[in-house]
Amino acid sequence: MGRIYNFSAGPAVLPEEVLREAAEEMLDYKGCGMSVMEMSHRSKTYDSIIKEAEADLRELMNIPSNYKVLFLQGGASLQFAAIPMNLMKNGVADYIVTGEWAKKAYQEACMYGKANKVASSEDKTFSYIPDCSDLPISENADYVYICENNTIYGTKFKTLPNTKGKTLVSDVSSCFLSEPVDVTKYGVIYGGVQKNIGPAGVVIVIIREDLITDDVLAGTPTMMKYKTHADAQSLYNTPPAYGIYICGKVFKWIKNMGGLEVMKAHNETKANILYDFLDQSKLFKGTVLKEDRSMMNVPFITGNSELDEKFIKEAKTAGFDSLKGHRSVGGMRASIYNAMPIEGVEKLVEFMKKFEEENL
Ligand SMILES: *Cc1c(COP(=O)(O)O)cnc(C)c1O
Q1: The whole model's pTM is what?
Q2: Mean pLDDT confidence for 295-316
Q3: Taking the domain 17-257, which CATH number applies?
Q4: Domain residue spans in the chain?
Q5: Which residue's alpha carbon is at the smallest distance from atom 11 of ligand 1?
Q6: Quick one: which of 251, 208, 287 has its CA closest to 54?
Q7: In the chain, N or C terminus with fewer CB closer than 10 Å?
Q8: For domain 259-359, is the CATH number 3.90.1150.10?
């Protein structure tokens, strides 16, 4: 059996080259006589793995020197608590709720202080991004929170909200490294890596230094303090060592591809192939507002749930895996992250055309 086209929303497809390299190094990493999995995280060899990963990420995203890069555990979901615990100095934060993940982050923040929902797109099942140019931002808000790419619903912020000078915190789990970003516009950028960068178990937090302090909410566990990890350069305790090693390989892969500008062009090409087909199809249609469409997660439906089921089943048999939409929305969703080849999307569209002819 060869590899199939994996459209899973996460954990998701990784570059084949990266997997092959990791396989080659599995038993003996560069003459060490052991796997990276078996190695002390305090060893010289591991030190260069994590340092090089950070340096490559800094180069790719052009991260200024007054930002720290933290490799943490607990997934994006643990950050839903870490963010208010570390940043709510006034006990107030504004949340823009554009999907399930933003909603979960908002609900978590409500446990730690006064979280205000300043905008939402829940009225139309999160099928659009609200106008965030002039929101009622709280005067004493410690930060404004967004989920930049909504993995489940397939929408993306094309312009960042006007935070009226407040710190912007962004969950980029499902659009991490998919295009260039201006890090200076954010206080915190973070994401679980299992969507676009590496294996589940690693979360990357990019945070401006002045936000890292000892002044955290009372009762914040040591492991939840950004300062703990910043001071120890992500080695306070045992980090998700093997996962970070794979992330490092993916950073190199993106660098070899030409960096984030090239990645963006590659992702636009793929997204356009799929959206152009959806826009003219008589059977399939996209579910979100055109101008807010994600390049990474593309939800679509036929309008008939039995036909959706049939499509998902036949697609799987034909080698297109994990096209079932999230359980909260139904229909289909094709996640076309960085590592999905253009050919995978072309072949999917071919298959959809054939299915349309047979079922219209
Ligand atoms: C998957 C996802 C999460 C949750 O990630 P975990 O690592 O499973 O906690 C949070 N936010 C977004 C945008 C996601 O796509």
Answers
A1: 0.98
A2: 97
A3: 3.40.640.10
A4: 17-257, 259-359
A5: 101
A6: 251
A7: N
A8: yes
